[in-house]
Amino acid sequence: MKTLNVSISDVEYNQFGITSDKLNFPDLVDMVSRELARQSLDRGAELAEKYGFSAMTMDEITNEVKAVRRMRYESGKQVL
């Protein structure tokens, strides 16, 4: 097994919820992944608010998705 030393700031240490100076790699990956996911969700929420998507109803969202899929289908592009 190899040992890797990584230096991070006190802010990052707290931000990622690290509670020990010694972590195994899967635990580190999990902590970093959770924080990056949280940041992505926060950014998505900010953009939804900025562009008015946060006020859409589920029916409106469903209709938008259907419209995009229909447009892609009609243009011959692969539908996601």
List the helices and strands and how they pair.
Blueprint: H1 10-15, H2 25-50, H3 58-75
Please give a structural write-up.
This protein has three helices and no strands. By secondary structure, the chain is mainly α. The protein has one domain. The termini are far apart.
* Strands, total number: 0
What is the general shape?
elongated
- By DSSP (H or I, 4+ residues per run), the number of helices equals 3
Radius of gyration: 20 Å
Number of self-contained structural domains = 1
Let me know the average pLDDT.
90
- Unreliable parts: none
Topology order in helix (H) and strand (E) letters: HHH
Percentage beta strand: under 5%
* CA distance, first residue to last residue: 42 Å
Largest sheet: none
Helix content: 55-70%
**Helix-strand makeup class:** mainly alpha
Task: Please supply descriptive tags for the structure shown above.
single chain; 80 residues; mainly alpha; 0% strand
